[in-house]
Amino acid sequence: MSTAVFIGRFQPPHLAHLETIRRALARHDRLVVVLGSAYSYPTPKNPFDVEARTAMLRASLEPALEPRVRFVAVPDDYYDDPRWFRAVRKAVEGVVGKEEKVCIVGYHKDESSYYLHGFGDWPFEPSGVRRELNATLVRERYFGGDEGWKAMVPEGVRAYLERFAQTPEFARLQAEWRALKHRRALERAYPYPILHLTVSALVRARDQVLLVERQSGLGQGAWALPEVHLGPKETLLTAALRALREKAGLGLSAERPTAWWAFDYPERSLRGRVVCYGCYFDLGFSAPPGLGAPQAFWLPLAELDRSQARFFEDHYQQICWFLGRPPQRPTPEEESA
Questions:
Q1: DSSP per-residue codes, 78-107
Q2: What does pTM read for this prediction?
Q3: CATH number of 2-164
Q4: Whether the Cβ atoms of residue 127 and residue 105 lie closer than 8 Å to each other
Q5: Across residues 240-265, what is the average pLDDT?
């Protein structure tokens, strides 16, 4: 038995995705669809969760094909590509076993398609799909109010998106999409690319981490590390301590952080090219200090993975990096909690 693996974000699924699935099933016994960017906070770039994307794809398949398709979800791991490849392999092998003959199907869209050749003994098999269609264009028209998106997606996806457009969540995402369009239009007026430098602060105390709930702007309602833009006369440390004071109401005295790192994945933020310098403060077994901001709270590490869909940008990945652990898929029990 042969298995094809189709990796993508499917935000949302469109006709080229469906054609790729049909062609793969014409050549192979079954198909595993890997849903990337899983368990992330909804944004205009990734508006739909795993369940919604799975439902849209299932609704688009012919009844005879649907039993031959399996779905697995893999979270982003921006700062360790080999570990991400291992996570994908583990998820697929959990469905088909380790002895199965497997290949990767897809098409080279742009530089983000580098992963197609990264699985060693799983060869790449071009899908042969040549449609000039991508999910970015679908989302642009969808959030922009252009009805042309309806001709780009299967009927099952169209029905779902029409229902979603009547929800408060769509209104929130559309407002963010408009704000981002305005921001990018302003930045295009500058004669050079703009680089934003921010500083985040991770504080750990007794296996709890300090978080804040964003009150406004992009990612309103998301959980985040305290973060500020680096001031022109600040060091990384003074900016991190300021982030804790201003965002969490925490006055922390520290000569230097336990660790720091530059989180520089180019696509980590929809705000533009934002490099975030993370500072980690480990207070050991000290009791979590009191906080002076109502939006700040302590999250037990035992609840970290089940909560990852609440996190702003790559802040969940930042925490994982400092703690020396990979991003984890929530267990079925955690997902249903």
A1: TT-HHHHHHHHHHHHHHHH-SSSEEEEEE-
A2: 0.92
A3: 3.40.50.620
A4: yes
A5: 94
